[in-house]
Amino acid sequence: MSETTRAMRSDAARTVRTILEAAESVLSRNPAASMEQIAEAAGVARTTVHRRFASREALVDAMIAWATREFAAAVDAAHPDTTPPLIALYQVTANVLRVKSDWRFAMSRALSADPEVARVHADVEALCARLFTKAQAAGVLRADADPEWARRVYYALMHEAAQNRDADPDALAARVVDTLLRGVGTGQGLG
């Protein structure tokens, strides 16, 4: 491949990313925003957006696919299969909260009919199941805890934490992991 071709592809990739990021920003504020508003926010002509994305639906689908890949990369970056479980749990949480914050609109629509998006989510769910099993074996989770239930509680905590738009992802991750592992009660009156 020639340098010119490589530069053109790199420029096209940057343009697509710029459009996707602008669309995320615009649609997070106004889900009914037009392609023209997205183009204006991206600093490109409306025809450029239409050349890259045949329709608004195609643009949203591309945003979902992009955000899903970012989500999977965030989980993988924590190396949950090789990092000690408590550290991996914290790092996965912080990384995912960053993606959920950056791609709020797209992640809210991530349960797409796209088979690739579904596969990525299934892979991440399987990885999380392994992480919770590993955490239980290491004593991070109680031996009598149901790992499936613990994961579902974790996902609910993550969802709620992601609603804090201006909070620091690292601080939120610490709160999520602390709440998951220690709860919010004192244990008084249970026995």
Gyration radius (Cα, Å) is 20 Å
Largest sheet: none
N-to-C terminal Cα separation, in Å? 71 Å
Structural class, please?
Answer: mainly alpha
Q: Report the CATH architecture of the largest domain.
A: Orthogonal Bundle
Mean pLDDT: 89
CATH C-level name of the largest domain: Mainly Alpha
Strand content is: under 5%
Pick out the low-confidence regions.
none
Shape: elongated
List how many beta strands DSSP finds: 0
CATH superfamily descriptor of the largest domain: Tetracycline Repressor, domain 2
Given the structure, what is the number of helices? Answer: 9
- The helical percent reads over 70%
**Count of discrete domains:** 2
Keyword list:
Arc Repressor Mutant, subunit A; mainly alpha; Tetracycline Repressor, domain 2; 191 residues; 9 helices; 2 domains
Would you kindly provide a written description of the structure presented here, covering whatever features stand out?
The chain is mainly alpha-helical and 191 residues long. It folds into two domains: 1-53, Arc Repressor Mutant, subunit A (Orthogonal Bundle), CATH 1.10.10; 60-182, Tetracycline Repressor, domain 2, CATH 1.10.357.10. Helices cover 73% and strands 0% of the residues. Helix 1 packs across helix 2 and helix 4 (56-77) runs parallel beside helix 7. The termini are far apart. The model has no long low-confidence stretch (mean pLDDT 89).
